[in-house]
């Protein structure tokens, strides 16, 4: 389970921080449309909690960084849009696609939900709205490791072999592998500070794969994950990089 790993990595990197985990597992594991609808309620509850902390303890919201994975990324976005003052940062880890790809900004993660919004997209295969992860950029900086499609080490051949051997029960493991890669890439960025992964701004993943975008001029490259440089351009910035299987 990835939550303790992420919490441990956050404390290792920021020993004096307060890490608060929102446990909405029961709501998150309902039939998908029901869970998707619950993001509004969860976001509202989180916003109320943040406002309470700010008022009760005079806590500055420029110290607040929300992290959300899949549906949780949209819950974080909704929370950010409802707080009385803006939170500092939201990181979306492969925000969920179905029902959100074409949704209006109040009910999904968007750049105006925090002073800075950065997003990792690791499973954006298939037609929009059928894609497990949202395909369109929804932050100030949107990074698509390996083009945002299937992630190395989560290979399709292996999946077909598993299906042949064990039936369809392992398909969800394959989906999980690419979808959850966003979390593990972020954890790596916390733990391996001296070896940041670099992403490059590019119009298309095809152009990136041809090696046409490997420039750092004019903020064209950025660190993946925790130490991202907070570059805010007028339009969303789509960035790409290649990662290994591990």
UniProtKB/TrEMBL annotation:
Gene3D superfamilies: alpha/beta hydrolase. The keyword Metal-binding applies. GO terms for cellular component: extracellular space. Its main location: secreted. It is found in: Secreted. InterPro entries: AB_hydrolase_fold, Lipase, Lipase_N, Lipo_Lipase, TAG_lipase. GO terms for molecular function: apolipoprotein binding; lipoprotein lipase activity; metal ion binding. GO terms for biological process: lipid catabolic process; very-low-density lipoprotein particle remodeling. Keywords: Lipid metabolism, Lipoprotein, Metal-binding, Secreted. Residues 2-246 form the Lipase domain. Belongs to the AB hydrolase superfamily. Lipase family. This is Lipoprotein lipase. It comes from Phasianus colchicus. The gene is LPL.
